[in-house]
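Sequence only, no structure available. Ideas?
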Amino acid sequence: MSNNSFAQLIESYSDAYKSQDWDQLVLIGDKIGALVGGKLSGTIRDIREIAKIYLGSLMGSGKFLTTKDADSVNKLVGGLENLEKFASRDNNKLLPELSPIIRSGYEIQLYLTRKQSDSRNKAASAFRNLARPDLAIFLTTQQLEITRLNYYSLVVRAAAYSDISSFNEAISDGQKALKYSPVDKKHFSLVTLSRAHLNRFKQTGDISDCELAFELAEKSFELKPDEYSANIFLRVIHTISLPGMDDLIANLRNVQKTNHFELDQKAIEIAKEVIRNSSSIQITQSLTSVDDLLADELFDGWLDLENDDDFESVEEEVDHPEDYFEDYFEDFVDSLNDPQNPHLEP
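Reply:
I predicted one. Tokens follow.
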């Protein structure tokens, strides 16, 4: 498949999605399915993105989430089978690349059979991975009507709002998630907030968002210095493209390759000073329609945070920790502490 064909598919998908032409979206999915069953080719990145929009297209309006809609469910099941056959070709070379996407499809099916809080949140995360942040927002909003302090729902919804460029809503949810997350599970909130502020900066050029994105990325790395936090830190640095950060970039790349966790603090302080003193910053990366539509995968990292968190959350009504657990039966409380199990994530 040529790059032009790939671009045309993305453009058609984006147009149908933005106009909420769900019938057209399903037709696009059927066309992509014909390619998948035939001679789909291209770069690994192209094939991954095609796989995402393929399954996302087949979901149409998503009415199968609230009503019995056998046709939509059957389309999703057929799409998964088609994608699995394609991934198994050529001695399974594509299977490692497409397995996370296929897994997301099955996690949505899990929700359809077990409509409870933990599977609802996992399905919402899966919708983001399949380029359907609108359905992620729908499911997490449902959950938050039951449990208004469900940190996982807040983080997923914040990330989904970022996907559709609703950055104010993303930041509001992210701040609330950070405020009410268990103290040992705040990394998701920090990463999601950093991304939202970074993307709003790219949209508006507001330096304060740039500063916050950097500070949140730095905090996430301090709390969990691993590849995931290094990734968001690098994304911030590359986007703002400031001078004097070569050493910090090299240091973070070294973290990715070697798990060496010490950063050049002098480079960090120089970067902060440059940001503070900047009245204008050249942005070398801009949001594209693909960036808006195709969601970044959530980072599967969790971290420690001291009780005296100095992040200034938005002041809001007082909530109590017991509200957070109000919809969890005893059997599912343990899932809150086992985020690495994909079918038990709260």
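The radius of gyration is 20 Å.
Hope that gets you unstuck.
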